[in-house]
Every structure is written in C-alpha cells, then in structure tokens.
Amino acid sequence: MFELFKIGFLPFTFLDLIDIVLVSVIFYKLYTIIKGTIAAQIFLGFAIIFILSFLAQAASLKAGSWLLNLVTSVWVIAFIVLFQPEIRRLLVILGKNPLFNIFVKSDEGSVSDILAESAFELAQHQHGALIVYLKSTGLKSVIESGEVLNAKLNKNLLRSIFFPRSPLHDGAVIVNNNIIEAARCTLPLTEMTSIDGRDLGMRHRAGIGITEDADVISIIVSEETGSISIAEKGHLISGLSRENLKNHLAKSMIRAKEKGYKSIIEYFRKPK
What we know:
By secondary structure, this protein is an alpha+beta fold. It folds into 2 domains: about 5-95, no CATH class; about 110-270, DNA integrity scanning protein, DisA, N-terminal domain (YojJ-like (1, 3-Layer(aba) Sandwich). It is built from 11 helices and 11 strands. It has helices at about 15-35, 40-60, 60-70, 75-80, 85-95, 100, 110-125, 140-145, 155-160, 200-215, 240-270; strands spanning about 5, 10-15, 130-135, 145-150, 170-175, 180-185, 195, 200, 215-220, 230, 235. The strands form 3 sheets. A 7-stranded mixed beta sheet has the order 4-6-5-3-9-10-11, with helices on both faces.
C-alpha cells in the first residue's frame, strides 16, 4: 500500500488514512444520533477515558495504565448496556438506507396489501380518498403543502384520515415505502376534464395530475360511486377490484425497485 509518511519507525499508509476517516465518520454519526441525551455525556466520558489510556501508555505510566485498562477491558459490555436504545436507532437508520435495502427482502407485498385493503374498505363506505405512493421521485413541496405526519403505514390510520368528519380528509395522503409522510396535501390538476365521455372530478384530476409531474402511483376512491381507480404516468384505470388493485400496486412497486437497482449498478459500472 502507498506509504504517505512515517511516525518514528511506523509507516502511515493510505489504507491507514481511510481507516481513520471511517472510524471518525462512525463516531460522528453516533454522536449526532445521541446528541442532546444523557447518553451523549456517557459517550464523551468513554472518549476521554480512551484518550487518557492512550496517553498513559505512551508516557509509560504503569499505575495509570493499569487503572484505565480495568475500565477499558469491559468497555464492550458497558457500551452495549448503556447505549442499547441508541444502537437500536442506529440499526434502524441503517436498515432504511436504500443501499443496504438491495440485500434485504422488500416489503412491497405488505404495503400493497395495506393500501388495497384500505381503499376497498373506504370504497365500501363511500368515503372519498386520494393516496399517492412515491416510487422514486420526492415530493417535498407537495408534502410541505399539507400536514406532516411521518407515521407508520396503517389501514386504520388511513381510514381515520379519510373519515368525512376528519380535519385531514381533504387533499391527498403521501406514502413513502411504509411511512405516511403527510396528509391533506395539495396536488396539481391535470388539464384533462373528461375521459371517454366521463367527466372527471377534482379528486380524479388531482390524482392524474401528480402522476404527470412525478414518478408516483395515485389511488383514487370516488365519494359519489365508491369505485376505485388508479393513476400512473398520466393514465387512469377505473373500476378496480380489491385483488386487481393489489396486484397492480405490487407489480408497479417491484418494477420501480428493479429500476432503482439498475440505476445503482449502472452508476458503478460507469468509467470514472
């Protein structure tokens, strides 16, 4: 490995530099997660002990090194016990990273099931609904137009949001993976006012309009007829059954995931 310089008789290589940078990034990320909690003070205390232990060994302080080694010898167990909630949060953040999700079984099936079941039950009660599922494109401006929720996708929560007397029932719900990001969002309207001689209401025009501007799927439940429609890439499919909706959603989500994998692979294949 390419040698950068020497510290005494020890060579410092490019690999050593990468190692130090990676460890620094890991410690920084961990600190940002626990910042503002009591665990941050404990973390700082551990860092001070390690620094003092290193200095004691470098200065050949036998008594000090022995005392500090008593603490550092059990640091792994103490770290796990004291930082259990923070370690859990860190693992959750890593699990949500798209790069690592390539190697993990996706949950398109459960998401499509929840969305289809929710739409079907809303249709049975003729409760109008507009649900937008993000395939790849972010909708920051649309999300900011509504009420940010960041809640786990849940059938009962969707039914509660679109209950006619709910203050959030007007507008669209934005779903990203298995998270409801926002409700009561305003969507752009398509310029189409009718399809095959059938007039389009505002909910259907909004459901189609957002698919013309972004890579999303819209699920539309009619308040007047209770029919279920789905919009994608500016096209509307109406009169869907629960199973047809579920299958359509699952296939579209899988295609979007495969497209994302291909883009990542193509990026790494490009000559640098």
